[in-house]
Amino acid sequence: MKKNIVLSVIVALSLISISSLPSRADVKDNEKIKDEKLKDASEQSEKAARVFSEIMNAPDKAVPGEIVEKAECIAVFPSVIKAGFIVGGRGGRGVVSCRTPQGWSAPAFLNLGGGSIGLQIGAQATDFVMLFMNKDGVNSLLSSKFTLGGDASVAAGPVGRQAGASTDAAMKAQILSYSRSRGAFAGLELKGVAITIDDSEMKGVYGNEVTAKEVLQENKRTAPEAIREFSRTLGKYSTRPTEK
Q1: Enclosing domain of residue 105
Q2: Between the CA of residue 164 and those of 59, 62, 69, 213, what are the distances in Å?
Q3: Is residue 170's pLDDT more than 80?
Q4: Is residue 58 part of a domain?
Q5: Partners of 177 in the beta sheet?
Q6: pLDDT digits (tens, 9 = 90+) for 23-38
Q7: For residue 15, is it within any domain?
Q8: 1 falls within a domain
Q9: Which of 93, 156, 103 is nearest to 130 (CA)?
């Protein structure tokens, strides 16, 4: 009798354990979702890298080299469209990398939205570039959400040979911002714009419980080679490591 009871308990526990395991279909679905996230992240990194290279390679119309050299982090939001702000308030997605003692960090992924940005861009897709110039700017980036002009000071960045003639306000700003539309590149003060960490993309690339600080400052997460194009591109224009 006792043997039958013990056997029944073992069988019941085994069935519970088996039922709690993910099915092959679930495993396949999870792998498919992860592959899609990696592919999307890779495309975002490549787009951001291409935009930054095109801007920096434009004679007398690029972000001044000395400004890039001083920046602690650089973010690019490629092909932001006005319609995105009208429907749902999410206008664009971006990629950011920060300096570390080992060079530019693995990329983190951002969302751009809110504020009056929808009024500041036309019907054409617009590229936005943001340079985080000091520790306060970096700290705002490491939070889950911050607003330009509110949580972090922002100013229109100088272009081309304007670096030497930049205003004190621009040089004291935590973030310098730029826009490019229809080939025209200029500094643009993006006040009231909200920037958030793209948690879904970050988890898809780096795994659950990942933080921006782990990726951008602490090098605790390894970036797949496919998404490092943006970081490699930044290294072509500035190789200064951050101070330990």
Answers
A1: 36-236
A2: 17, 14, 14, 33
A3: no
A4: yes
A5: 130, 156
A6: 665 555 556 666 788 8
A7: no
A8: no
A9: 156
